[in-house]
Amino acid sequence: MEEFLERSFQFIEQSGWFAPLFFVLLHVFRQVFFIPVLLVCLLGGYLFGTVYGSIYSILGLTAVSVVFYGLIHIFPSMREKLTKLKKRFLKEKHQLTIVQMMIMRLMPFIHFHLVSLYLIESTKNLKEYTKYSFFVSIPPAVVYTAFGDMIHELPLAGTLIFASFLAVLFLFFRKKRTNIKWDDFFSTSKQ
């Protein structure tokens, strides 16, 4: 993985005007090589600076989401596996807000495509899905690009504090209502 990243870094650095395109494509293909989003965004910050690196990372993460949208419809078995993971994590009872999904994308231990699957299930079509994927990709692109070195080099205590902060934000921005099905509310107990 390190060798692949180093070669990618050198190739992008020497490609001139095509560097942003290759960087966006690196985002798309990073999942094949199991490279974390964090590392690619760090690379974007190093190569292009915070502003352009963030823009290219947002475009790359949105492109990954669109590719995932296509793959999930081609390979239903992949959708089933991710749905099981989603049910285990979200318990089917939560309706996530866009802000919660943004925070989830910031958490490096949350599977990237778990949020994408939730977006697929809560949007009507590809256009709406792409729009929300774009918005949900902004926080990780900006944070990992701008503060990637700080997050990456934090000691364990700092990482735990940051993860706790994200968890508190996640709970703070949840929807405040609960839907109860008619049958569940008026269920008769068997005794």
Would you identify the regions where 5 or more consecutive residues have pLDDT less than 50? none
Report the principal-axis shape. Answer: globular
- Would you list the SSEs in sequence order as H and E? HHHHHHHHH
Question: Helicity range of the residues?
Answer: over 70%
Averaged pLDDT, please? Answer: 80
Most strands sheet: none
End-to-end Cα distance: 60 Å
List the total number of helices.
Answer: 9
**Strand segment count:** 0
Radius of gyration using CA atoms only: 19 Å
β-strand percent reads: under 5%
Number of domains: 1
Secondary-structure-derived class = mainly alpha
Key features?
about 190 residues; about 0% strand; about 75% helix; mainly alpha; globular
Question: Can you characterise this structure?
Answer:
The protein has 191 residues and is mostly helical. It has one domain (8-152). It has helices at 2-13, 19-30, 37-74, 76-90, 98-106, 112-122, 126-152, 156-172, 182-185. The protein is globular and about 70 Å long. The mean pLDDT is 80. It is found in: Cell membrane.
